[in-house]
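Example record for the data management plan.
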Amino acid sequence: MIPKIESNKFKVALIQMAMSEDTNNNLSKAISWIENAADEGGEVICLPELFSSQYFCQKEDIKYFNLAESIPGKTTKAIGEIARKRKVVIVVPLFEKRAPGIYHNSLVVIDNTGEIIGLYRKMHIPDDPAFYEKFYFTPGDLGFKAFETSAGKIGTLICWDQWFPEAARITAMMGASILFYPTAIGWHPHEKLEHGKAQFESWQAIQKGHAVANGVYVAAVNRVGLEKLNDESAGIEFWGSSFIADPQGIIIAQASAGKEEIIFADIDLARIEYVRQNWPFFRDRRTDAYDKISKSFLDID
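Corresponding structural encoding:
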């Protein structure tokens, strides 16, 4: 007789929010949203990338280094208190000041005890118009991470990491049941009409592909609203649309394009096992033939 697999679930919550110039207000608002998510049964709660400020990487200006903070610091202390009070796990993205002149786009995982149990530093750093992250962030040096929390084992990556299948594969191989992607992505307003639909669909498709290829849940949490650092700038229109995909790439929860809200989904370990039994991609990997993947490019003679 084949034994029945018992379902083992935990509920995740993604907080989609808009940010103002007031960092204290952003933190207070995030804590309020965390309270709401906990009230609705969220056990692992994730905030958007660099949630404590507007997306300052739209321009290169050394004054924005003043937004960075140490870990532990003000934000981790405040959110650690709410994690302990509400008995929830929280993924907290931060602009990390590591040392003078060394800054990272990072996140911490705070367990339901209020303690920091993990640190991840964004590995892939973009440099595109209005996304000038290489000016601010040193690439991560901790590698890819999966953290054992009180709710379950989770993987954490950040925004630009979401385009790289290697990052998703390695994190899934470390035992993560879900890949969290805190994100700050949107349109240049002048490009939206011509390219907006294709850009959005590509963003969603690549992450659904990670879910399928690795048999894991994927959760991308974005910000919303038009952010302009000055009147001369066109700004970035963040497209929201945070979503959670299951191990078959099926979207099981999705937020709107322009509203602050929370979305929820159950992460079902039995569902992961069932999908992997039917699509045994890990079984059929040819690790003996993948040595060239570590090269930057292959020149063919």
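Summary line stored alongside the record: The longest strand covers residues 89-99.
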